[in-house]
Amino acid sequence: MSSLNKVKKILFLTSAMLSLTIPAIAQSGDAMVAAKFKSANEAQRTGRLDEAAVAYADIVKVRPNLAEAYANFGFVRYQQKRFDDAAKLFERALALKPELGGASLFLGISYYSINRLDAALVAFEAAVRSAPNDPQAMMWYGLSLNVANRVEEAAKYLDAAAVLAPNDVDILYHRGRIHLRISQDSYRQMFKADPNSARVHLVLGQSYEEAGRDAEASAEYEAAIKLAPTMPGVHEAIGSLYWKNAQFDEAEAAYEQELNVDPFNTLAMYKLGSIRVERGRPAEGMKLLQASIAQSSGNFDAYYYLGKAQGALNQNEAAIASLKKMLEGDRTSGLAESAYYQLSRIYRKVGRVQEAQAALQSFEKLRKARKEKSTEKLEEQLKKRVPDGKPQS
Fold first, then answer.
1. Nearest C-alpha neighbor of 99 from the set 133, 63, 140, 127
2. Domain 194-263 is classified in which CATH homologous superfamily?
3. Residues 333-392: pLDDT tens digits?
4. What is the DSSP track for 165-225?
5. I want to staple 269 with a disulfide (CB 3.0 to 4.6 A). Which of 104, 175, 231, 292 is the partner?
6. For the chain, domain boundaries
7. How far apart are the C-alpha atoms of 81 and 91, rounded to whole Å?
8. Using an 8 Å Cβ cutoff, are 182 and 158 in contact?
């Protein structure tokens, strides 16, 4: 859902809440105002904003102390993008009833929309104070703090918003952006402090690798190693680059170096262990994989290589358990395909024929899906090259 739709959703929920004041107005004996309020609220709800604005203007003339009417009138002006007018109406509503739900938030959004940042910050702070469990208030306060270059504070409120609404994509987006900014600011300070430090070379290597410029990445990692050969993480970084490019001799040596520097690097343990399993040294690989899993049990890929090592060592029941554990976390990837194949072999070896057949069927199903997906991708690439479907002359 877009930020605009989020705003509309909050707006209508708040308007609906404020419409509950109609019975209270009616009980006060002012039936005409109650009827007009109901009519204005209905016009607002159905998008007849000009009509709603006229009705709310009439109401506040008759009942100048009715905070809810000013707030709803403010919502209408907000929808009409008349943010100056909206802000004035929300200010009046809050002056009459400071605890009015939603008004501080929309006052802040109105100020934010007309670049009155200082006023927006005050309003958002009040919104958060009055509704500490409102993720939207937290998000908007965080956004305005970021614009004000109060970055660490912004991160605090966006993190809090994400806890309150963990599946809200707008909040997650803005939270990611603020943490990226913090990261970039930290790197800039690092470059300024010591542009030739090993850490700078490591960061440059990572950025080159992310951009697919592996030769430049390798050169930066090598420079970092030369400057700080005992710095944790640097051998693992170049080892992963070698791993990605199937340079397994170099990768194995790099991971060994990393574990000499940092014996508790679980990623280095996992990758060195998996290399050794794949290269026919299952006992050595199994020891490393078990140590990696003991420290980080959430790496399901490690269970695949552990199961493969156990199978090679005829530890069949342990291998079955490890491979099934891997499939608990991943049933669709290429590694899951390989896990089903390994399971089918081990089940057959121990005489569990039906389970072997079921595992083999799962393997074949995944392999077929992968091939179909590969074919579709190839066809899409060909269509892009030849848009009309005919060979180019």
1. 127
2. Tetratricopeptide repeat domain (1.25.40.10)
3. 778 999 999 999 999 999 999 999 999 999 999 999 888 888 877 777 776 665 554 444
4. STT-HHHHHHHHHHHHHHHHHHHHHHHHH-TTSHHHHHHHHHHHHHTT-HHHHHHHHHHHH
5. 292
6. 3-131, 194-263
7. 17
8. no
